[in-house]
Amino acid sequence: MDGVLGDAQERPLWIDSAAFISPGGQVVAIMSESYSDLIGADLSYQDIVQEALATRSPVMLDYMLLDEGVMGTLLEYPVYSEDGEYAGIFSSAFTPAELIEPYAEDIKSKYGYSVMAAQPDGFILYDEGPK
């Protein structure tokens, strides 16, 4: 499974970690190296993994303290082989503000608008306020 997640050097900076999880819930590959001890771990007990595996649909958590010890969110996305066979899920932990910031800066420089992003429950994920 080497290379299943691509080259760690090429991953977007806003992704804290990424994993490929089998249909049975086991971690097959993971990026970054600091989480390599999770290879082979069974994550099928996690609600988000159960939902993503059962529905074979994208699932995203609200912003929270992740198992990795960082504030962020998880996105689970179904993966299919070239012949259409269900292969498992791609799981990524990321910080929404780091994802949004470059786009917000582009909008501000092009159009002069400020950007703020919030979860459906109103929690602010990004606000360009003073840095």
Which structural traits does this protein have?
131 residues; 2 helices; 8 strands; two-stranded antiparallel ribbon; alpha+beta; six-stranded antiparallel β-sheet; elongated
Description:
The protein is of the alpha+beta class and 131 residues long. The protein contains 2 helices and 8 strands. The protein has helices at residues 47-55, 96-111, and strands at 15-21, 27-31, 59-60, 64-65, 71-80, 86-94, 116-118, 124-127. Strands 1, 2, 3, 4, 5 and 6 form a 6-stranded antiparallel sheet that branches. The protein is elongated. The model has no long low-confidence stretch (mean pLDDT 85).
Give the secondary structure arrangement, pairings included.
Layout: E1 15-21, E2 27-31, H1 47-55, E3 59-60, E4 64-65, E5 71-80, E6 86-94, H2 96-111, E7 116-118, E8 124-127
Antiparallel strand pairs: 1-2, 1-6, 3-5, 4-5, 5-6, 7-8
How would you sum up the major sheet? 6 strands, antiparallel
Question: Any idea what the radius of gyration is?
Answer: 16 Å
Distance between the ends? 41 Å
Structural class: alpha+beta
Number of strands: 8
Task: Give me the number of helical elements.
Answer: 2
Q: Mean of the pLDDT scores?
A: 85
How would you spell out the order of helices and strands?
EEHEEEEHEE
Summarize the amount of helix as a percent range: 10-25%
Envelope shape: elongated
Strand content: 25-35%
